[in-house]
Amino acid sequence: MKNVIITVLVVLLGVTNFAYAQEESNDNADFSKWQIRLRGIAVSPDESAKIGAIGGDVDISTAIVPELDITYFFTENWSAELILATTKHDVKAVGTAAGNIDLGDVWLLPPTLLGQYHFTGGNFVPYLGAGVNLTLFYGVDEGPVADDVDYDTAVGFAFQGGFDFMLNDKWFINVDVKKVFLSTDATINATTALGATVGADVDINPWIFGAGVGIKL
Fold first, then answer.
1. Helix, strand, coil share (%) of the chain residues, nearest 5
2. Exposed / middle / buried, residue 166 (Cβ in 10 Å: 0-12, 13-18, 19+)
3. Can you name the residues that pair with 81 across neighbouring β-strands?
């Protein structure tokens, strides 16, 4: 995990330094440095799990929520984007030795920082991005079976592709797809029901599909 964080930070630092160098050579360029988007997103986990003792897999529900992102442009092409949203997911352990187990629900807070390249030159502006995601788990409801469920904070890579379509000089519509490679260790205290505490290595790896509107400031 430490190596992942260091690698991503080095990549982002390299992109930022390159972008700043480009900015110095484009001081007189006429472009908006800030833009804000509001999207509706569907967060669809591509989940799997290794569950100790009782075996089985995991099922995590899709969530549909609003998302806010803030983008700063170093140059007309290079930018950094911070993505903010929070999602609630129902969680089940399925196909275990004890059958299917309702593990309640959990909220995820996954701020994501991406370096982006925008292919400018017209009203249709596609872009690609890559960066790092930090996911915090909170508001856990352990459900009717477990005494307690605990999820470790997770860090992962995020990749992105999408486009903006300019409606005028300020307003645009946006379509965006992201893939986040996200894993967490979960500890399920099921002492009352099963007489055991069970650990699980859970891969969430969500696809995030979004569409919305934005404004250049």
1. 10, 65, 25
2. middle
3. 71, 114
